[in-house]
Design brief:
Layout lengths: L7 E5 L3 H12 L3 E5 L3 H20 L5 H10 E4 L10 E4 L5 H14 L5 E4 L6 H5 L8 E6 L8 E5 L6 H13 L3 E5 L8 H17 L5 H10 L1 H5 L4 H8 L1 H11 L11 H8 L16 H23 L2
Parallel strand pairs: 1-2, 1-4, 2-3, 4-5, 5-6, 7-8
Antiparallel strand pairs: 6-7
Helix pairs in contact: 1-2, 1-3
Length: 314
């Protein structure tokens, strides 16, 4: 199946990621069938799409006409059998291997043999998920980043048995959606983005545990230092601009002092025991109210849109 033959999309899952992905396909002109098991979950997902669209319209990224047309193309269902005739599946259920395999075992029984399957996992093995379907050659990882209605990045991951031709089709679809796809040639845990992100977070937790700095100052360092540069240039580009000889000198004395923890650090484990999960529970490294969180998310979306507008000008 070529990209020109892909007309209908099946979306599985109505959480934050599923909602944003369904929205992206519908806004790009695809007939989109959106499946979720519970009506309550679907209602929350639809409300999220409406809020996302309001943000995009307010910031001049989306027209009201396009938003309305997208909602008309978005068909909801609570019956997985309604996905039988779609050309492409995008799954965004819980980050649990058993649940994902169960979903794809069921989908494999009803969908056409040429339907392309993709999973929006943050780092689970694409190869292992794909083992639940009859022809894993058509199974590819498609990892979106949160918030999916704004973030351009999509990691396209080749499993051990994934067809490279199918991977290229998925990459082309990402481009049709106005996204920035990257090709992950090996199915490794965390792919690219989360491997880099978690390596950084490990050292952040190490700095906190050692009492070197408070969360506010760590975040300030990132926002006004490396993070600002990383919005413009990647780490390999920055290393070249600084000089690889300088990087090697710093690495020679600094690497040995960085955290090499293999388990969740105590400072994080203690917060999990206290159920201080962050914004979702009202407390993490910071405290949140409903109003303050709403303000943070609106500011986040507005600033992200500004950054990506600037990137497009290059």
């Amino acid at each position: 199946m070529g990209i020109s033959q892909i007309k209908s999309i099946g979306i599985i899952g109505a959480g934050t990621m599923g909602a944003g992905i369904a929205q992206a396909f519908a806004e790009s002109g695809y007939e989109t069938i959106w499946f979720n098991r519970s009506e309550g979950g679907m209602e929350r997902g639809l409300n999220l799409v409406r809020l996302n669209q309001e943000t995009l319209i307010k910031n001049g990224v989306l027209t009201e006409e396009t938003a309305k047309s997208a909602m008309e193309r978005l068909k909801i269902t609570y019956k997985i059998d309604d996905l039988a005739d779609v050309d492409f599946i995008s799954e965004s259920v819980a980050e649990n291997m058993g649940i994902k395999q169960e979903i794809f075992t069921n989908v494999d029984k009803i969908c056409r043999k040429d339907c392309i399957f993709t999973s929006n996992t943050s780092g689970l093995s694409i190869t292992t998920i794909a083992s639940s379907v009859s022809n894993p050659e058509r199974f590819v990882g498609m990892h979106w980043w949160n918030p999916p209605h704004i973030m351009p990045l999509v990691e396209v991951i080749k499993g051990e048995k994934s067809s490279e031709e199918i991977c290229m089709i998925v990459i082309d679809i990402c481009k049709n959606l106005g996204r920035k796809p990257v090709f992950v040639k090996k199915d490794v845990p965390g792919f690219i983005g989360n491997r880099i992100q978690l390596a950084l977070q490990r050292e952040v937790l190490n700095i906190l545990e050692q009492g070197i700095a408070d969360p506010e100052d760590i975040d300030a360092v990132m926002k006004y230092g490396p993070g600002a540069r990383w919005a413009l240039y990647g780490p390999c580009e920055i290393a070249d601009l600084a000089g690889l000889d300088i990087m090697a000198s710093v690495a020679d004395y600094l690497f040995k002092d960085l955290s090499n923890a293999q388990n969740v650090p105590k400072i994080l484990a203690d917060k999990i025991v206290k159920k201080e999960f962050g914004a979702k529970t009202g407390k993490g490294f910071y405290q949140y109210t409903k109003d303050s969180l709403e303000k943070i998310l609106k500011s986040r979306d507005r600033r992200l849109l500004q950054i990506f507008k600037l990137q497009k000008q290059d």
